[in-house]
Every structure is written in C-alpha cells, then in structure tokens.
C-alpha cells in the first residue's frame, strides 16, 4: 500500500515504522515545513492518507484528501466541531474516512 503521512510527529514516525515493517511504502510525508507539497499531483498514486496533524490544519488536510478521492484516516483531535463538514464531503465524494481520537499502541 502507498501511504501519505500528513503530520509527521511522534505518531507519524511510529506509523511509518510499522507500515514499512509490514511491507507498505510511505510515498509522501507532510509536516508544517512542507505543507505546500500536499498537492493533487503528489497524491496521484497514493492509496490512503493517514492524517495526524494539528487542530488548525486537520480539517483542511482531511477535506483536501477526500475531495481528491483519497481514503483518509485521521487521529487528529481538536477539530471535531467541524466534523459535519467532513461527513458532507464523504457523502459527496463517496470515499472512505475513518476517525478515532486514540490510535495509541
């Protein structure tokens, strides 16, 4: 599976370690320093986006991925007041989305 990691902090690095150990590849790593790299072109060959960013950027990141037909998993917290917007995008784009507030091992 080709994965985009959006938010490359402690959890992002752990996800990378586990994914690579299981034979998956991390094709794109996005953090606050390279946010402009989250583009349609860079998502072209991505199978899934895993989003663990900040409350300020989570909604934008999730929305962008879903609108571009990338199934997305999010563990970011602090943005749930906007969850209904994500539900609408999921319905409109007909793409998978999974959210949980705790993915900690």
| Strands in their spatial order, largest beta sheet | 2-1-3-4-5
Q: Work out the helix count.
A: 4
Counting DSSP E segments of at least 2 residues, the number of strands comes to: 5
- Give the topology string: H per helix, E per strand: EHEHEHEHE
DSSP helix fraction: 25-40%
Written overview of the protein:
By secondary structure, this protein is of the alpha/beta class. The chain is 38% helix and 20% strand. It has a five-stranded parallel β-sheet, sandwiched between helices. β4, α4 and β5 form a beta-alpha-beta unit. α3 packs parallel to α4. It is globular. The mean pLDDT is 95.
Indicate the topology.
Elements (H helix, E strand, L loop, with lengths): L1 E5 L3 H12 L3 E6 L9 H4 L4 E4 L3 H13 L4 E3 L8 H11 L3 E3 L6
Parallel strand pairs: 1-2, 1-3, 3-4, 4-5
Keywords:
alpha/beta; 20% strand; 105 residues; 5-stranded parallel β-sheet
What would a concise description of this structure say?
This protein has 105 residues and is an alpha/beta fold. It has four helices and five strands; from the N terminus they run βαβαβαβαβ.
């Amino acid at each position: 599976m080709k994965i985009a990691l959006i938010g490359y902090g402690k959890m992002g690095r752990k996800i990378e370690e586990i994914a690579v150990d299981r034979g998956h590849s991390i094709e794109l790593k996005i953090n606050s320093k390279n946010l402009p790299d989250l583009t349609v072109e860079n998502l072209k060959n991505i199978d899934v986006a895993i989003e663990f960013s900040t409350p300020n950027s989570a909604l934008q990141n999730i929305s962008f991925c879903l609108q571009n037909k990338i199934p997305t998993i999010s563990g970011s917290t602090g943005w749930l007041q906007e969850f209904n917007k994500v539900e609408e995008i999921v319905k409109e784009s007909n793409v998978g989305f999974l959210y949980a507030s705790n993915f900690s091992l």
